[in-house]
Fold this sequence. Notes:
Blueprint: H1 19-37, H2 44-71, H3 75-99, H4 106-127, H5 132-152, H6 158-187
Amino acid sequence: MSHAAEPQHGQVLPIADPTPIGLICLAIGCAALVPMAFGAGLTPSGLKTAAMFCLLFGAGGQFVAGLGSLLNKNVYGGTLFTSFAFNWVINWWALESLSRGQVPDATVVFAVDVCFLIVFLAFTYGFGFFSALLMAFLVDIDLLYLARIARHLGGGDWLGVVVGICTVALGAISLWIAFALLINPVAGRAVFPFPGPVFRPRFSRHAE
Length: 208
């Protein structure tokens, strides 16, 4: 997500790349949801605890990363992080509501999940022009939303396990990318390998 923000022709980015902030906060938010994805932490206390992590790290951290990316003219990272930030606010609200015994409307959630899946499928293709790892990041999100949608349509309880596995994988990939952006430049070598693009553009983006 940082590649679109790289300086061109000697330009300097207005601020440091905020991508690692967003990814680490995303991983922390995912970690807060993992117990519930596997059927644990469903008490009012557990729901409220997870809700605060979703609000502070999932929403807050990614909103900072999204605004920073937009400031650096990184449209891909800025759009994804900012959209994710608002979605994590919804996660906070849903968990808070559940802790009080109020269940969010499933029909509305289903409609939004379908919209998110369409958006993420387009992003999956787009990020393939930057890195195979970024594309895998989006493929994992696609699978997560496919499982959520299939579960709403009457799929088995095993789809909840798929959601849990995808959540764990999302946190792990997020940390890997963040560490690659933070540690590799300091170490001077690819301690955390970051593969190149899957696709090549037909025409150069800098061609006149």
